[in-house]
Amino acid sequence: MHLVAIGGSDAGISAALRARELDRGADVTVVVADAYPNFSICGIPYYVSGEVGHWSNLAHRTHADLEATGMTLRLDTLATAIDVAGHRLHLRAADGAETVLPYDKLVVGTGALPAVPPIEGLADPGDPLAAGTRDGLGPADGVHLLHSMGDTFAVMDTLTRHSPASAVVVGAGYIGLEMAEGLTTRGIKVTQIEMADEVLPTVDSELGALVAAELAAHGVEVLTRTTVQGIERAEPGAAGRLRVHAATTAPDGTTTTLSQLADLVLVVTGVRPDSRLAAAAGATLGPRGAIAVNQRMETGLPDVYAAGDCVITHHRLLGTTWLPLGTTAHKQGRVAGENALGGNRTFAGSLGTQVVKIFDAVAARTGLREHEALAAGFTPATSQANPDDHKAYYPGAHPIAIRVTGDTSSGRLLGAQLIGRRGSEVAKRVDTYATAIFHSMTVDGLAELDLSYTPPLGSPWDAVQIAAQTWTRDHQLPAQRHALETARG
Amino acid sequence: MHLVAIGGSDAGISAALRARELDRGADVTVVVADAYPNFSICGIPYYVSGEVGHWSNLAHRTHADLEATGMTLRLDTLATAIDVAGHRLHLRAADGAETVLPYDKLVVGTGALPAVPPIEGLADPGDPLAAGTRDGLGPADGVHLLHSMGDTFAVMDTLTRHSPASAVVVGAGYIGLEMAEGLTTRGIKVTQIEMADEVLPTVDSELGALVAAELAAHGVEVLTRTTVQGIERAEPGAAGRLRVHAATTAPDGTTTTLSQLADLVLVVTGVRPDSRLAAAAGATLGPRGAIAVNQRMETGLPDVYAAGDCVITHHRLLGTTWLPLGTTAHKQGRVAGENALGGNRTFAGSLGTQVVKIFDAVAARTGLREHEALAAGFTPATSQANPDDHKAYYPGAHPIAIRVTGDTSSGRLLGAQLIGRRGSEVAKRVDTYATAIFHSMTVDGLAELDLSYTPPLGSPWDAVQIAAQTWTRDHQLPAQRHALETARG
Predict the structure, then answer these.
(1) Residue A323 pLDDT more than 80?
(2) Per-residue pLDDT tens over the stretch B353-408
(3) % of chain A at pLDDT higher than 70
(4) Among the three residues B311, B340, B369, which one is the final residue of a domain in this structure?
(5) A185/A297 same-domain check
(6) How far is B268 from chain A (nearest CA, A)?
(7) DSSP assignment, residue B173?
(8) Contact criterion met (CB < 8 Å) for B452 and A326
(9) How are beta strands A72-74 and A27-31 bridged, if at all?
(10) In terms of CB atoms within 10 Å, which end of chain A has fewer, N or C?
(11) Which are the contacts of B416, defined by CB distance < 8 A and separation ≥ 6?
């Protein structure tokens, strides 16, 4: 039995690890497009910031550790085609040499590619299997995308060679925010540009505004409702400073244009699934062009599984969507690896649980926001509470802003968003909500959970429960009062 | 409708708050034995340490806040007898005046009294309804129990008037450990004496040893396997220094005696339910002499509910036991208050979730330990893992020692114990286990939870899941391998 995994990131490696764990005799090969298997791409901002001393520390496991599990790694090797009928994978080595690798079972974990927004003057490197690139300013000019270790080395090269004093970060999602912090940590003056009304548009703007305040407090200039339209050299023909042209649309619809000088431009506006290899082999695609899979991570092509950022995401509240996250890729890869060996696991589904640290603030979410829940057919309502992280009498208490979304028809908990200080256990408080949603709890039911309490770290009703009780009071107390009156006759 | 709650601590106040929330016309009286309604007795160590500036800050809500909810407080009033047939409560004011208070529904929340161990020379203050006190050394001599605000003021009086340089803390449970820290913070040299093999005997000794190391690192002398036998004045007849006599039993059974001089002795060896009032009225008692109640918090006496430390505890894994915790008292009081008004709530049951901070360490547990699970009829096994709290490449990572107990027959998660550094989100990581046990998850099933991840705060598989996977590998991987082989034929 020869299991081949394509992709050296979370999904492919997780599949290979699980296969080797379950069957110590399994022949497992992982085909890795670059030289960096099992790297934590989530850690890139902390290498750029200087907090991680050497890039090799970003590996979840070293090459040697991986090989010690008994898997074979083929590095710097691009999978160019899947011969489904022949159970063979076509490979191209860095030197251009073409080879064919037979397999019994295949796990496709080709991941994602950085989105390249339509910014005039921005080069599009295309994807590894396509010729369609677009010329323009790129890494050599100090204009960077950031997704792979290769991108990372290019950014570090710009930082080292040109010591930029200023940077524009295009995009204020997770990576954009972390990079704004990382570059600020390096002493670079950062301007962060975001199209949406508020930074961190994956949470409600009431909470995004708190993140914006944290950025401003650390010297980051934040421009929201602003779309970058073009990037050019500040002095035509000469390498060096860059000029970023953008347009800001005010709430009343009026638009003003601006131009911002910078020594470095980082474009981090999201990713798209890298599903071309599987699609060319006949795999069905789903939302956002990601590879369609069932919860066993089967593609429908015989003996071909897929997992990670390249596949659609089974979501416990939404059905199928596309929601690429490293945590999900680990789980899906593990399921694919087990099933490829003849097991019978299903991926239980995502809730889109996420957390990000921005300077001294931590923002997290799980489940659905109100507009997402509405679109999914629920009758949602949202309440915000700002309970302290621990008893106010004990030094160092800070409020956590918590927005709970519940279904007013069923009372079911649908989602939660939190922002608080680092040290307020925000990241693991969102996990309680995630575990509650996993089990379809009602918002009211959260009061029944036996959560821990000591004055320096919590409250007798934890902040998680106080926020839930606020929602219940706002949306269910009248009905509870009425029911009680009725019961009493 | 006149609802009367006896007890101004968590259970009584929670019942009164819930009743007033549900029925704005309800007539609600809370009878409080002292002048300190709704005080956080869990906060006492932080007042003694000096971290809480004024004792009044220990109130969850002020007297005025409570009255603003529309409840009536009768302070310094002892409930002396319940006339169940007459629906009347007999009261005694501080000046000795006796009155009778009619009620329609009664919630008994008389709480707990400090345990008084059989130490020669230690005074037993008895309980408020009993004459049976025992003479001996007490607060005036610098020998203290610690449960009420009155006890707290007595300790503070000793600290202020005598500025003790040394203290013996008898007992190394939650309060004992917090008081050892609090007195150390005040600059007092503390000797902590514990009967059990290790401090914090509510967790496995492997983890208790880590707490002992934390105490030692902060200058606390720890004596385990040591029983205090007597306390006397160091100079007979003269107030001042105290001499504590104790005996240590080595693992081989040999006993050595010791005597320790101290300026202050604190005896904090646990509590016992204060169920005398309800018992005298005919209530049935259960484990440890606590008032028997059903999950609606009904005592069986007509229109008499009870909640908090004075009642038995419905435990989701153990059935009925006695496990007094403030978090539980809040929940039970809320259920009692709602049902007293005609509602239909049930207390969902405790898991004994607890957390304690000891200097820079945080220890937590939920559910059952192995010997508890064994006694409850499970076939448990326990594994320990020591995963980092976040990715090791990001600065400041620390391991969390996590012991997971599962049922080898069903695979069900039964309990978890954790010790880590303050800042490692230990308190809220135990909550994920608690929520998982609440929903009867298997240990293996924890891998399906969508928990949050960012490198500064977690891992793609959270520490909670890494520890669960360690258990699964230790206890289920051979069976998983066998099942896979069988499936493949």
Answers:
(1) yes
(2) 999 999 999 999 999 999 999 999 999 999 999 999 999 999 999 999 999 999 99
(3) 99
(4) B340
(5) no
(6) 17
(7) S
(8) no
(9) parallel
(10) C
(11) B365, B366, B367, B402, B403, B404, B405, B430, B433, B464, B467
CA A228 to mean position of chain CA atoms:
22
Question: How far is B111 from B309, CA to CA, in rounded Å?
Answer: 4
Tell whether A38 is covered by a domain: yes
Longest Cα–Cα distance of chain A, Å, equals 85
- pLDDT, residue A396, reads 97
Same domain, A39 and A99: yes
End-to-end CA distance of chain B: 71
How sure is the predictor about A126, in pLDDT bands with cuts at 50, 70 and 90?
confident
Residues on chain A touching B344 (C-beta within 8 angstroms) = 487
Position B239 scores a pLDDT of 73
What integer pLDDT is reported at residue B132 of this predicted model? 63
Across the interface, whether the CB atoms of B46 and A394 are under 8 A apart is answered yes
pLDDT at A130: 67
B22 CB neighbours in chain A (<8 A) are 477, 480-481, 484
> Measuring CA to CA, which residue among A438, A383, A437 is closest to residue A405?
A383
Burial class (CB in 10 A: 0-12, 13-18, 19+), A236: exposed
What gap in Å lies between CA A328 and CA A312, rounded to an integer? 11
Maximum alpha-carbon separation in chain B: 85
Q: Which residue of A has its CA nearest to B461?
A: A327
Residue A486 lies in a domain: no
Give the one of A23, A330, A439 whose C-beta lies nearest to B439's C-beta.
Answer: A439
pLDDT tens by residue, B252-297: 999 999 999 999 999 999 999 999 999 999 999 999 999 999 999 9
- The pLDDT-based confidence of B128 (bands split at 50, 70, 90) is low
From the list B83, B76, B70, the residue with the least C-alpha distance to B29 is B70
Work out the minimum CA distance from A88 to partner chain B, whole angstroms: 22
Our count of domains for chain A comes to 3
For B346-358, b/e burial (b = at least 16 CB within 10 A) is ebbbbbbbbbbbb
- Residue-range definition of the domain harbouring residue A204: 139-267
SS3 B442: strand
Min Cα distance A59 → chain B (Å) is 9
Amino acid at A72: T
Rounded CA gap, A190 and A183, in Å? 7
Residue B442 has pLDDT above 90, yes or no: yes
Confidence of residue B134 (pLDDT cuts 50, 70, 90): confident
Closest-CA distance, B366 to chain A, in angstroms, reads: 8
Q: Are residues B403 and B305 in the same domain?
A: no
What pLDDT score does B130 carry? 67
Residues A52-66, mean pLDDT to the nearest whole number: 94
Q: How many residues does chain B have?
A: 489
Which percentage of chain B shows pLDDT scores above 90?
A: 96
**Residues A411 and A436 placed together within one structural domain of the fold:** yes
Which of A23, A338, A353 faces B452 most closely, judged by CB atoms? A353
Mean pLDDT in chain A?
A: 96
Contacts of B427 (CB under 8 A, 6+ apart): A425, A452, A454, A457, A458, B355, B362, B364
Domain contains A353: no
Domain match, B14 and B53 both? yes
A458 and B427: CB-CB below 8 Å?
yes
